[in-house]
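Final report, closing paragraph on structural work. Over the funding period we assembled a curated collection of sequence-structure pairs, and we close with a single example.
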Amino acid sequence: MAIERTYAMVKPDGVKRGLVGEVVGRLESKGFRIVGMKLMQITRETAERHYGEHAGKPFFEGLISFITSGPVVAMVVEGENAIAAWRTMMGATNPKDAAPGTIRGDLASTLDENVAHGSDAPETAEREIGIFFQEHELLA
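Its predicted structure, as stored:
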């Protein structure tokens, strides 16, 4: 397996509910290294870049409204098979389908407010990391 980087985010609902430590703890206890992290308020412009592939879809405005509704914790996570491993740790997008032991299975309550986000492919990870971080903000 290759060492790779992925973009991970604790969404506004997770920050509001005080779940940042829980999420970070799960990442670290799995052996992942956080090479970038910041608490930030996402602007509408940044949100539209982040969710650009969904522009024009009926749920787009709801996504933008939610992700800009409060602070998020943006992270770059590094480790072996980080993209797939983080997605497995998060669980299914809809919490009712997420397995116990996953972040969404244990902590999320609705499809719209499901605590965490993670890149779904290497290309997506590279694009999302570039939206939220500059190279000098990341540990070597």
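The CA atoms of residues 51 and 70 lie 17 Å apart. The two ends are 20 Å apart (CA to CA). We thank the funder for supporting this effort.
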